[in-house]
Design brief:
The complex is a heterodimer of chains A (989) and B (459). Chain A is built from 11 helices and 48 strands. Chain A has 989 residues and is mainly β. In chain A, helix 4 runs antiparallel to helix 7. Chain A is globular. The N terminus of chain A is likely disordered. In chain B, 53% of the residues lie in helices and 3% in strands. Chain B is built from 19 helices and 6 strands. In chain B, the strands form 3 sheets. A two-stranded antiparallel sheet of chain B has the order 1-3. A two-stranded antiparallel ribbon of chain B has the order 2-6. Chain B has a two-stranded antiparallel ribbon with strand order 4-5. Classes of the chains: A mainly beta (989), B mainly alpha (459). At the A-B interface, strand 18, strand 19, strand 20, strand 21 and strand 27 of A face helix 1, helix 2, helix 5, helix 10 and helix 18 of B.
């Protein structure tokens, strides 16, 4: 069908949520009214660039990952390769410091929860809740990017929206059955380079000396392994005995163990789905069941998801239709792996391990994790390279279990009543309810929990929403169409969290509260409600010009009564230029512009001040006294004061764009420029303590986003074989215009050394930390001893974690029954703090520390410091040795600047090019299949992440220590990412 | 059809009814009772009395010396604006003063005004610490969320405010003497004791102004007659035996081992006079005197060591000085002796040792002039108030010049020109960060934000 027709259809049914492949199939106008009972958001005129439709070959467990590089303006960031790890979505940048930057996820017209509140710098990789959605059930995804498009979401609209439409049966179709089975093997795709040449130890009196695990030695600055041999003595840390200089032992050469390779194993994923769909007369139905089982590359780590979905449509009367949807999901992990800044973390314990210590004690992978002798000595203490200072990775895997199990129901029911041909009424009620039970535990003698820990979590969340809509459609005159919509929306979310903790295990390995000597419990309940009225009016003239105005007024429970009732509004104008100038159908040109104002909600309970059990302190050097104490209860006000005048964060922005189409729509180009300014950004502003409080939540900051986006669709060849290209490019600039005069910097996420921050005049999320001193020209300032000086002015901005631009290129070749498809993902720029690298250099386990430890007479490029301690113009000529043992450990290049070195040394460019998806599919000949009752069948070989090119020296730089948090660009012993090889069998009966 | 529509409409409006009361956190309290604030206020007051301000003034006064780490900057007079941020923010303004302010606001009901009165006593005490340590400080315009940048009161105003707060407290308590006071961790609700404490504090703060108010001594004597008259009447806060509820000095000793030790000056002074309290104060570990030693039961550094908000011993010394200043030297000598005796009794020194020390040391036998006698009184006070009143000794040092101390040899630095023992602490960093104009104008008013700036009260 041609673009013009598609446009007419869109105009006629502006309330329609996409059902099916709208841009490749024609949609019947009467049909669309029936399906209009989704949340009323108009389809943008040129919608192709906002659609994500290709899912059948994706091997991603998390639906969010499947959206990567498939549309412009959308940045997906996966936090880790561990099963069930979270991924974040940002549409055209970041707007909030304390609250959500993630778009709304709207599933068949109802909002569903996609939170990931627990991901911290330590602990395990937690899931974002959209992971519960089975991709198998998804028909298409539409992304609402402009402020105007999100006006109808009001105070939840500023971060955009992802509209997911699931599969439905067809009323005219007989029963169709689909079977789909996919299996894939996962492997670690990239690791930091580590050395196996130098032993655990350090220089003692100028000579590198082996120091075994019993010394607690953390460093691998010992002798070359080639210069050592075993002594054959009985030694709990190695069956071959202790290490001694060559010639002094039993002649058996010392071994550089490959601990890293020994631990990671092949992961595997099975994904089985079945569906039945069809319809008759007034009924359509779709039922599916799915089972996904994933084992990670770290032993014992896993993720599972069982889901069932039922979609039913029924015409009660000719003009009264109903649809019902019910989705049950059970997902979770039997074991998640500790990671991050966490001395029980597997990557931390693994990568720091000295090569002369064999974590697996002769075993590898799961076998090592299952054998208690690899990680525990007979006396119950740890067998690890620092004798328990860090957990042995196998100990952590086996003795620090973390699990979680989610039961979730997403359901909606809707009614649509056509009063007459112009007027219709709609109602929709949706519920998303999940409950999660989880355990986090540590056995006695765990590095993090010496006496053991049991923590039982019980979280539950319910979203409920209902919409009443009235729609009026009228052809006012020959050339003027009107579609008007008005509605009332009510939304409530209710979270309840319960955490029961116990410390001091009585019996080792029994993770129940009853088995602990001290228990405590915390409760957190968060209730929020929104009630809003809205309208949208579309007018079109002669199928050439169309305009929309819309507005929503929201009352949100998180705002004080006096400030409530915030109004959001916008307008859009689209002009079909080609039609206006009556050009041939071969060329199409549309120009569009829109403006909108949307909001973002502050968190709950910030409008008043609360009282918590008191803590008496204020010394700075000693702890203090916590209440209840001395036999009485005591309470004090929380340190950050509530603000009874708090308001929403408000974003106003515009879009300007055009669409070109040539050659009967075989080539289409879209360009969009967007700009938005978010004001009243809420920050906890530190105030003079004399006000009686540490700070107050104020609407005070301003953040600006502007972007250039290009989408291109082409079909260069369309003969026996076809070639389709789809290309997207986004360049989003995200700047913090202002914060507050009392705030120089606000840390969004990270560690005390390196963090992601908002700083005035800098891009959102900049990386910040310690740096070398530099002169005015940026040259290093070198001390008289030849070593660069540290900047004594303190920490500074060191990197920008936002990519300069991102692009996705999908090529699809089809010939007869064979389809080859490849998705290339390019990310240019964007820094990541490789904290892991700094630490591995410091401990001497990185390959770099092996390659460069014998560098002598190196002269740093910089200027010398003068007698007054100021930078001079004299070029430094003083040579130094990187790690000369006679200078001791403290003289070493990687140790002298402290633990992990300076943050500046580890800020790295994380640009990449990767082959994100590759699939070769073969449709088996129909005539062959029909004999056995199969309508069609295909076999697909798939690959995910098979090729990655990056200068980043650590794991795959698509990673984030703090999950989907607002801060990003941090890698500190994150779990590595993976690549997959798989095959998918598909049968249609 | 109509009924279905009605049902749908009803359902929606039922779900969407009221949103205004939702934003109240069910897991935290949004209101508070006075009986829940009072124990916190009292504990905070006692904690501050033995906390960082006491340690720092004790080091300046050479009760203690630095041995390692953070304390070195104090005893070397490199005391920057970062030294007392926590005290200012969490101990004082965000601590006792903020709590007291909430209590005063809450205690409007006639049945509860006594809570506000006790809050005023505790606030007055802390204000005395603040102004004597820093000079001009915010108070009269503080604690107003609509005024985020709080101007400072002059030191003169602060001392007036202190007396007003105490007067108001006394008057309120006298009128409500039978009312109950729950959560009173010091006097278990006995209001008469609080009245006596208020008078005691009035005497202390009058005596702070001996250089400014010619009637200071007479005013103090009048107040002392209404204050408590024995050790058992003093406001002692009893810390717990558990480390998490311990006396701040014990917490510091255990949590920061080997950072602070007994100053040689104190050790030598007590050794020369064979002061029997020396074994209660310190232990010689072979190379130096330490103020805490496991198993040695040193009085002030035990976990459950008491902390008087103001002691009877101090009152007797104030009395001795006031009498001396008003010309009654004989009675002054007696008061001084009673002061030392009360301290020895408090420390459970045996009677013989007490008598011996008092008879041989605590008299004006070798002192002839007023100055010599004043020096003697303060010297004895210096020993008696070890670990419980170093802040007061620092005040005495600045207004009388006694005890005579030799400043740290290399104590001159940018913040301490001249290198003498500091006259005050500099304003905290957070004030420069969040309240810059006001702290700068206060600095200008007192004559510069330096350690060496002599404060109005002590000039």
């Amino acid at each position: 069908m041609q673009r013009g027709e598609s446009k007419t259809v869109s105009l006629l049914c502006l309330m329609l949520i996409l059902v099916g492949n709208t841009f490749s199939q024609s949609v019947d106008a009467t049909d669309s009214t029936i399906q209009s009972h989704h949340l009323p958001v108009p389809i943008p005129m040129s919608n192709r660039k906002d659609l994500i439709g290709v899912f059948q070959f994706s091997q991603e467990t998390n639906v969010v990952n499947s959206m990567q590089s498939k549309t412009s303006g959308l940045l997906v960031r996966s936090s880790s390769g561990s099963p069930g790890a979270s991924s974040s979505i940002r549409i055209r940048g970041n707007r909030s410091v304390l609250f959500d930057n993630s778009p709304l996820i709207i599933l068949d017209g109802i909002p569903i929860d996609n939170s990931n509140s627990e991901n911290s710098t330590g602990d395990v990789d937690r899931s974002n809740r959209a992971i519960d959605i089975s991709q198998y059930d998804i028909e298409s995804i539409q992304v609402l990017k402009s402020m105007h498009a999100n006006v109808l979401y009001g105070i939840r609209g500023a971060n955009g929206a992802i509209l997911i439409t699931t599969k439905k049966g067809e009323k005219t179709s007989k029963m169709k059955i689909n079977l789909n089975y996919g299996i894939s093997i996962d492997k670690v795709n990239k690791l930091p380079e580590y050395q196996t040449e130098y032993a655990q130890g350090r220089p003692v009196s100028g000579i590198p000396q082996w120091r075994g695990p019993e010394t607690g030695e953390g460093f691998s600055w010992g002798p070359a392994i080639a210069d050592l041999e075993f002594d054959g003595s009985v030694y709990p840390y190695d069956n071959n005995g202790r290490l001694v200089p060559r010639g002094a032992g039993n002649g058996k050469k010392a071994i550089g163990y490959d601990n890293v390779n020994n631990l990671f194993k092949n992961g595997a994923k099975h994904n089985f789905n079945i569906s039945i769909g069809g319809g008759k007369d007034r009924l359509d139905y779709y039922f599916s069941a799915g089972l996904l089982n994933q084992k990670g590359v770290i032993p014992n780590s896993d993720f599972y998801r069982k889901s069932m979905k039922l979609n039913i449509g029924y015409d009660i009367l000719k003009n009264l239709n109903t649809s019902i949807s019910f989705n049950y999901i059970n997902s979770g992990s039997n074991n998640k792996t500790q990671r991050g800044s966490n001395i029980s973390g597997v990557p931390l314990g693994l990568f720091r391990t000295s090569p002369t210590f064999d974590n697996g004690n002769g075993k590898t992978g799961s076998a090592a994790a299952e054998d208690v002798d690899t990680y525990e000595l007979p006396d119950g203490s740890q067998r690890s390279y620092r004798a328990g200072i860090y957990d042995s990775p196998y100990w952590s895997i086996s003795k620090n279990p973390t699990n979680s199990n989610v039961n979730r129901i997403i359901s909606h029911v809707s009614l649509n009543y056509d009063v007459n041909s112009d007027l219709s009424l709609g109602y929709k009620l949706g519920i998303d309810n999940w409950k999660k039970d989880g355990l986090t535990a540590g056995d006695i003698n765990s590095a993090n929990y010496a006496t053991g820990l049991v923590e039982l979590n019980e979280d539950a969340n319910t979203y409920s929403s209902s919409d009443i809509t009235v729609t009026y459609t009228k052809l006012i005159s020959k050339n003027v169409d009107l579609v008007a919509l008005a509605g009332y929306n009510y939304f409530s979310s209710s979270f309840s969290g319960k955490r029961d903790s116990g410390t001091g295990l009585i019996q080792p390995g029994v993770f129940t509260l009853a088995n602990t000597s001290q228990q405590s419990a915390t409760l957190s309940d968060v209730d929020q409600k929104i009630s809003g009225i809205y309208f949208s009016i579309d007018l079109s003239y002669a199928d050439q010009i169309s305009m929309n105005i819309r507005a929503r007024n929201d009352w949100s429970s998180v705002l004080p009564d006096a400030n409530n009732g915030s109004i959001y509004f916008g307008a859009e104008l689209i002009w079909d230029v080609a039609k206006a100038f009556k050009k041939s159908d071969d060329i199409g040109l549309w120009i569009n512009t829109s403006w909108g104002r949307t909001g973002n909600r502050p968190g709950a309970y910030l409008t008043s001040t609360y009282y918590s059990p008191a803590f008496v302190g204020g010394d700075g050097f000693i702890g203090g006294i916590a209440f209840p104490q001395f036999g009485v209860e005591g309470f004090t006000a929380n340190s950050t004061t509530g603000n009874p005048n708090l308001g929403p964060e408000v974003t106003q922005g515009y879009d300007l764009g055009f669409d070109f189409e040539f050659f009967e729509s075989r080539l289409g180009v879209n360009y969009t420029f967007s700009n938005s300014i978010t004001s009243d950004v809420v920050l906890p502003v530190p105030i003079s303590a004399n006000v009686g409080s540490g700070g107050i939540f104020l609407n005070t900051g301003e953040i600006e986003n502007s972007g250039h986006e290009i989408s291109l669709f082409a079909t260069p060849i369309k003969k026996k074989w076809t070639w389709d290209i789809s290309f997207s490019f986004s360049k989003i600039k995200n700047i913090v215009n202002s914060l507050n005069t009392n705030i120089d910097r606000f840390q969004i996420a990270g560690l005390s050394s390196a963090s992601s921050n908002v700083i005035v005049g800098e891009p959102y999320g900049v990386l910040y930390g310690s740096a070398f001193r530099r002169d005015e020209e940026g040259k290093l300032v070198i001390e008289t001893d030849g070593w660069p000086q540290v900047d004594s002015n303190g920490d500074k901005v060191l990197g920008n974690p936002n990519p300069d631009w991102i692009a996705g290129i999908q090529n699809t070749f089809s010939y007869k029954g064979i389809t080859l498809s490849a998705l290339l993902d390019i990310r240019q720029g964007g820094d990541v703090w490789n904290g892991t690298s700094g630490i591995l250099n410091y401990f001497g386990t990185s390959q770099l520390s092996a390659d460069q430890r014998n560098v002598t007479n190196f002269v740093f490029d910089g200027v010398r410091v003068d007698a007054n301690g100021d930078p001079s113009s004299t070029v430094n000529t003083m040579p130094i040795d990187f790690a000369n043992p006679t200078n001791g450990l403290g003289g070493n290049k990687w140790v002298r600047y402290g633990f992990g070195g300076l943050v500046e040394e580890n800020i790295q460019d994380a640009s990449w090019v990767r082959l994100r998806e590759l699939a070769i599919s073969y449709n088996l000949p129909d005539q062959l299949l029909s004999k056995i009752g199969v309508r069609s069948s295909s076999v697909t070989l798939t690959g995910r992440n098979l090729w990655l090119k990056t200068k980043y020296s650590g794991i795959d730089p698509e990673t984030n220590l703090t999950g989907t948090s607002n801060g990003f660009g941090l890698d500190y012993f994150n779990s590595p990412n993976t690549k997959s090889y798989g095959v998918i069998f598909n049968f249609n009966l | 059809m109509k009924s279905l529509l009605t049902f749908v409409l009803l359902l929606t409006f039922l779900l969407g009814c009221d949103i205004s009361d939702v934003n109240i956190d069910p897991n935290r309290k949004s209101s508070i009772k006075l009986a829940e604030l009072l124990p916190v206020a009292i504990t905070q007051s006692a904690f501050n009395t033995g906390g960082i301000m006491a340690r720092s003034s004790g080091m300046l006064m050479q009760h203690w010396d630095s041995f390692d780490a953070s304390t070195i900057t104090v005893s070397n007079y490199i005391i920057t604006s970062r030294a007392f941020d926590e005290y200012w923010n969490d101990g004082a303004y965000g601590g006792i003063l903020g709590i007291a302010n909430s209590m005063i606001d809450l205690a409007k009901d006639i049945e509860e005004v006594q809570y506000g009165a006790v809050a005023k006593i505790l606030a007055a005490k802390e204000l005395g610490v603040l102004t004597s340590c820093f000079g001009d400080v915010p108070f009269s315009q503080a604690f107003d969320i609509n005024l985020l940048k709080v101007p400072y009161d002059t030191q003169e105003e602060v001392y007036q405010t202190i007396q007003i707060l105490l007067d108001e407290a006394i008057s309120t308590l006298e009128q409500s003497s039978s009312a109950s006071l729950e959560g009173d961790l010091i006097y278990q609700g006995n209001l008469a004791n609080w009245i006596q404490t208020a008078h005691a504090l009035k005497a202390r703060f009058y005596m702070h102004l001996t250089r400014r108010d010619v009637n200071a001594s007479q005013k103090a004597i009048t107040e002392l007659e209404l204050a408590f008259t024995e050790n058992s009447g003093q406001p002692d806060f009893k810390f717990g035996t558990d480390f998490l509820a311990a006396n701040p000095l014990a917490q510091f000793a255990i949590g920061r081992p080997n950072t602070m030790i007994i100053h040689e000056h104190l050790a030598n002074t007590m050794a020369v006079t064979s002061d029997p309290r020396i074994t209660e104060y310190m232990y010689f570990d072979g190379s130096q005197g330490v103020f805490h030693q496991s198993g040695q039961n040193l009085f002030w550094s035990n976990n459950d060591a008491p902390m008087p908000l103001i002691s009877f011993t101090e009152l007797k010394f104030l009395e001795a000085e006031a009498l001396l200043r008003t010309g009654d030297e004989t009675q002054a000598e007696t008061s001084m002796q009673e002061a030392v005796r009360s301290n020895m009794e408090y420390l459970a020194i045996d009677g013989f040792s007490t008598d011996t020390y008092i008879n041989t040391q605590v008299n004006f036998d070798g002192q002839f002039t007023f100055e010599e006698k004043l020096n003697k009184v303060i010297d004895e006070k210096y020993i008696s108030l070890y670990a419980q009143g170093a802040l007061e000794i620092w005040v005495d040092y600045r207004r009388t010049g006694y005890p005579l101390l030799i400043p740290y040899e290399y104590g001159e630095n940018e913040l301490n020109p001249g290198g003498q023992i500091p006259q005050r602490f500099v304003y905290v960093q957070n004030e420069y960060f969040t309240n810059e104009l006001n702290v700068e104008s206060a600095s200008a008013n007192i004559g510069g934000d330096l350690l060496s700036t002599k404060l109005w009260a002590f000039k």
